[in-house]
Amino acid sequence: MERAKLGAREACRQSRSGSDSTLVTPGASIRNATLPGQRHGPKPRHRPAGGFRFRIQTAGRVNGAITQPDFLIANPTTPMTTYHAYAAQSAGGLLEPFTYDVGDLAPEEVEVQVSHCGICHSDLSMLDNEWGMSRFPLVLGHEVIGTVTALGAQAKGLKVGQKVGVGWSASSCLACHECLSGHHQLCSSNQGTIVGRHGGFADRIRVQWAWARPLPEGLDPAKAGPLLCGGITVFSPFLVHGISSTARVGIIGIGGLGHMALQFARHWGCEVHAFTTSESKEAEARQLGAHYVHNTKRDGALKGIAGRLNLIISTINVPQDIPGLLDTLAPRGVLHVVGAVLKPLEVPAFGLITGQKSLAGSPTGSPTAIDLLLEFCARHHIAPTTELFPMSKVNDALEHLRAGKARYRLVLQN
Ligand SMILES: [Zn+2]
Ligand SMILES: [Zn+2]
Questions:
Q1: Does a structural domain hold residue 17?
Q2: What is the SS3 assignment for 162?
């Protein structure tokens, strides 16, 4: 879940440490802890007695021949039980080396060896416990790229050795109406990768098989991470609203999300309009795919395109001229919000009624939506603009992001 720019403009907080540089929590199972606001911890999950996957075949008859009992070891790969990560011990604190025990691999889980992990603004929000749901020690990171190293007994659709990506979600129930109709991101049991569990600023991570998505050939693992959260957040609106290639699309904000949205809109075939308040970004917006750039600080910028756009995706988190933006929409147009502006939006009823317009929003996307995005990016050679940091420099990278200097997404490399 991308929370665009949320907290990014806050002054840098004094980092708190006061802990040993290496912290070991033998036997600590994060799944057994209780989240703030929860009366009880997360639902206990069935776990097999061991981490191996065995299937026992008894003696029987196959095509008339007697078969001998044997053991079929479907997955000979043994998952690691100790993971090495970087964790914050308290809200706003520095990330420190952290080792934790993950226990047995659950039947639906896969283990992924992390090669890269993007940093999202939501990581900063969780680090600062802005949403009141962070649990410490906390391993951030939910734009993971890596290789499958072990499969649980009921993990499907993946192979050991396969390259995959993991985003905001680590699991969903796979049984509710939303999951069964392909909207897993809306599942009430959807669990965030860094919510009540540890994320990808680590050597390994475990997630439910459905949320580890195969990485197509042609995507650079060092650049693909940001697609898994920030990318799908701005790609989903094209799917949700069935946007055609002849549509005219506006993107508000040219940053971590907007710079990807501009590329998606251009390669989707749309007429692309970028909205910015920064003159310095106008040329870059055109390079990223904008046919037109509108500086909303200039008077009349919105009036010049009244009634033109079919979709606007707003990626920023500051109050906007909602009546003015609704006026730029063509009849039946949609203003789609993905930037987590905390102040309520002021929406004039007649701005919606006249022209039958809509105001919408969405979080990330389903596993199949992520697949479509990855395939789309591989086909059109789309990649986020990234800056690479070694995993060991995670604190420098977070500070870079907090200072608003990221151009445009940061990626940690193991
Ligand atoms: Zn995110
Ligand atoms: Zn569900």
A1: no
A2: coil
Ligand in closest contact with the CA of 182: 2
Instruction: Kindly state whether residues 69 and 208 are assigned to the same domain.
Output: yes
N-term to C-term CA, the chain: 23
- Evaluate if pTM is beyond 0.85: no
| Pairing between β-strand 82-88 and β-strand 169-171 as defined by DSSP bridges | unpaired
Q: Do residues 383 and 405 both lie within one domain?
A: yes
Pairing relation of β-strands 213-214 and 204-208? Answer: unpaired
Interval between CA 189 and ligand 1 midpoint (Å): 18
Tokens (6 digits) for 337: 């919000």
Q: Which two tokens stand for residue 154?
A: 């009921």
7 lies in some domain: no
Q: What's the CATH number where 27 sits?
A: 3.90.180.10
Select from 22, 9, 141, 168 the least CA-distant residue to 89. 22
Structure token pair of residue 326? 């609704």
pLDDT at 341: 81
* Domain co-membership, 49 together with 194: yes
Cα separation, 165 vs 213, in Å, equals 5
92 bridge partner residues: none
Q: Is 113 inside any structural domain?
A: yes
Say whether both 101 and 208 belong to one domain. Answer: yes
Neighbours of ion ligand 2 (CB under 5 A): 172-173, 176, 179, 187
Closest by CA to 385, choosing from 403, 407, 404, 400, is: 407
Report the separation in Å between the CA atom of 321 and the middle of ligand 1, taken as the mean of its atom positions: 26
- pLDDT, averaged per 10 consecutive residues of the chain (414 residues), comes to 39 31 33 36 37 33 38 58 97 98 96 98 95 96 98 97 98 98 97 98 98 97 98 98 98 97 98 94 96 90 94 93 96 95 91 97 97 98 98 98 96 98
Domain that holds residue 154: 23-229+367-413
